[in-house]
Amino acid sequence: MQFAIIGLGKFGKSVARELYKLGNQVVGMDIDEKKVEQCSHFLSASLILDATDKAALRELNIQEFDAVLVSIGESLESNLLCTLNLIDLKAQQIWAKAKNAAHHAILSSLGIQHIVRPENDMGILVGQAMNCPSVTHCIPLGSNLFLIHFLVQFQATITLGMLKKRYKDIVITAIQRGEELISNPDDDTEIQPQDRLLIIGALNNLRTLTSELK
Question: Which molecular function GO terms apply here (predicted)?
């Protein structure tokens, strides 16, 4: 796949490096020549470019990229102008970094569906991890539903069927047991210590469940 990263600060640089490591074609661009030079060794192509210039983006055929990340963090105006340019040029999929809640609201009003606030999002994840160390990942799905990755540490024998009777509104979609991945486990499956469960459910139910199984 081919991705464009606009803005090569800490966040944009991190995303670009990871996409490149995963075997993708990654084009990075920034108005700051120094930032472009620092990232050139892990980019398929690196460009010194002002992304508020619609003509410059048009010359890149930006609409042909599978996705574009707007990671301009220093200037709210530049971030929004770049985003508007991408919308006008019909970029396939736009991801945008928001500085704060107000910026997030503006991007959302423009129809941007993929909005990230790195510090805020990471703060939520750290808080969730501190609240329940056995939950290694927690992803909000909307409507008070969450997807969690949970490490079982209790010793008692219990089956998925027993859990379902007690917690009717949770779904355990998979169990990772060592190197084995059990997809769509049936009700007779016994949960063992050190199993890692992938669970979907309402927040209150998940809190009660994880308290019981930790």
Answer: monoatomic cation transmembrane transporter activity
